[in-house]
Amino acid sequence: LVSALRYGENPQQKAEWYATAQAGLHRAEILQGKPLSYNNILDLQAACSTARLFRGPTAVAIKHNNPCGIASNDNKTQALRLALQSDPVSVFGGIVALNFKLGAIEAEMLQEIFLECIVAPEVA
Description:
With 124 residues, the chain is an alpha+beta fold. It contains three helices and six strands, in the order ββαββαβαβ.
């Protein structure tokens, strides 16, 4: 058992998160925010799996297991900006995954919208 979740697929449902491997999202450090929900876990997995497919700096925005923005660019700030601009309405309340270190500029961009989760390999 990793943890009890805020709720299951629907708010009235209970859910728990179990690890089945040594490595994975359950090893990530949560820096702030409310406890995760089942839907957060699904979106985090989809976003992280997609971001790992790209070699260059890439940002992935997911909501309800559907992509609403994916962009790669040699400039990591531009990659994030393009991903968020893909569908700025749908990304509200979603998940953003980065395959690069989250810096101050990107953090400021992300705080301008409500997101359930932001995941990155490292935070500056």
